[in-house]
What does this fold into?
Amino acid sequence: MHRFMYGLARFMAILGGLVLSAIIVLVCISVIGRRLNTLLHTDWVQGILGNGAQWLLDTGIGPILGDFELVEAGTAFAIFAFIPLCQITGGHATVDIFTSQMSDRVNRTIQVVVEIAFAIVLVVIAWKLYDGMQAKMRYNETTFLLQFPVWWSYLASLIPAIVGAVVGIYMAVVRIGESVTGRTLLKVGGEVDH
It folds into this structure.
């Protein structure tokens, strides 16, 4: 079961990384296009290139239309896509100033409480994303420039949010099992204990 959950979480993180990389390329192209468009409108470039400057402008050199809408949707997806891997590997930021001085039993109890809390929060986030998507579908809300339905962005974020919730529940069950049996089934770094 752990191998499947880890593989699913890793797949989502890779997908999130690909989307994040595409966003970076999109932003770079848009910024370069915006700068070239501004440069081609200057008098001295038009004096040097003459009709060539206008020809280049007519080809569509400029910022990518709706770039911020695509960045917004893609970034939300990427954030939710990274959560499952972070959850299963215990990659969340921790402050262990106090817990490093406590016994293993107390730390195990704290870990159970944290995993249950994370599972609940991840389920609520997925549920609220679903509710939000339903509202956007009902009102046929679209983005301003590209006019694509806003619910598409919600759906793109909902899928990895559901995966995150499933992984969160799995991790809570693992930690509860560890607490009940007194055995370490999964080290905090995500490694299985054999």
Q: What stands out?
A: Residues 2-181 form one domain. The first helix runs from residue 2 to 40.
